[in-house]
Every structure is written in structure tokens, then in C-alpha cells.
Amino acid sequence: MNGILLINKPRGLTSHGVLYQLKRILNANKIGHVGTLDPQATGLLVVLVNEATKIAEFLNDDEKEYLAEIVIGESTDTEDGEGIVVATQKVEPLKNVDDVLSTFIGKQQQIPPMFSAIKINGQKLYELARRGEEVVRKPRNIEIFDIERKSPILYENGRASFSFYVHTTKGTYIRSLCVDIGRKLNYLARMGNLQRISSGKFHIKNSFTIDDVKNGDYCLINMLEVLSDFPSVEVNAKQAFKISNGMFLNQEELNCNHAVVLLKKEERLLAVYELKEGKYRAKRVWK
Description:
This protein has 287 residues and is α+β, with helices and mostly antiparallel strands.
């Protein structure tokens, strides 16, 4: 059993908790995922089962799409609804919200939140934050391709909130984006609900719940289908033997000039090879 399983993660469960349950249900030897979701977030979690864990490095740069809620007039230490409220403001009717959102489209830098799993000097930021420590974080390069308000603005108890759609690069913290949106509106802000709806070519509409998997109502996506954007070569039996032993292949053998190529036999993924110094050498080999 090797392949990619798309899971619709429920609220309140960590990404690691999802893997723990699935490993037992599927009786998998190895299991992993691409793109962590915080416990309070819901939506698409791309799970890699057994040999598919080896393709994680080819999926890590995938773009993401989210539906998020922003709460304006309140800030928390975690930048979301799970943290301690540290300050509040009464919100007057907001103006030019859509214009402000549009200013976030494009390449930019974002400072990661203290409550994140980024490591500095071997320690995760959230571990430092829980001890009341704050350190300088290096800004990250991100790009927002599209952002759009998806609901009317709701005013309640001196706060304002609305949901929005965002399509962005890997590594973008939506919590921090909400704080930055609030800042441009001249208010405190935090993230409310968050749902990931896509990751790369995968979409939540094709996902399964954990209960679906328990009931056997699921399917795995073939690794070749997932890596279909890469050039591929069908190899013969002699080449397959060399591949299974991690041996290099000459360019003439493969009749190929691509920098990275998938090698397959009878629609089964054997390896990913890369061109180095005129020879194709193993980058990843599958059993």
C-alpha cells in the first residue's frame, strides 16, 4: 500500500495526531504529511503512505489556498483564537476593506509569529514563547497571488469580522497575515477560523475523513499521477536492475536530456534520477 491520501482534518486534532490514527487504521509501516495544520485549523492534509513518504521533497514547494476568518479589534499572544487576549479596541465601521486586501497581492516579506514551529538555535519558537521569551525573527519571502473578501463584515460586541480567500506560497502564516491586515486598517486583529482548501494540485473536494478511512471508503493516489509534471522514461529490464541497485545510467541509455526524470516500468515508479556530470544518478529509489 503506497500512495497519497487526502484527509479533511477536523478541528482540535494535530497533524501528528491524524498520522497516528491513520498509521494504526492502515497498518502502515511509514506515514508522513506535507504541510502542517495547526490544531484549531481544518481542511486538507496531504498524507503520504509507506513508499510515498519519499516524494515529500518534490511537493514541499506547493502553493496553498485557504479560507480564513479575521477578527478585528482584538489581539492575542498566539495571533489566533486559541491564545490569551492581550489587548482590545472598539471597532468603528470599516472603510476600504477590499482595497486594503488588494494591497497584499504580490511578493513581500513576512515575520513569522513567535507561536510557530520554526527553530532558532535548536529551539522551537513556540517553546520560547511559552516561557515568555521573544526573539528577533528573520522575515521570510512570500507571495500572495490572490486575496478576496468572501463574506459581509459582521459587527458584534465592538468587534468586526469577515472571512476571506487567499492563494499564497508555501510558508505563509495566515495568522500573521490577519495581524498585518488589521494593522493596515489601523486596528488590532487576529485570525479566527482557518480552513485549507488546496495544496498544489490537491483539493479538499477530493479528500476523506478519518471515519471514511476507518470504514474503508477511501482511495490512494498513485505516485506517478502526483508527479505527472515531471518528465518520465519507461525503462527495460536491464535498466530496472541497475536502478534497483542505485547504479548510474548514461544519457545515451535513457535518450534523455532533462535535469530530473522519473524512471518507471509498467506504470510503476522506480526512481527519480538527476543529471550530473553527463550521467543520470539516483536521487530517490523506490522498492
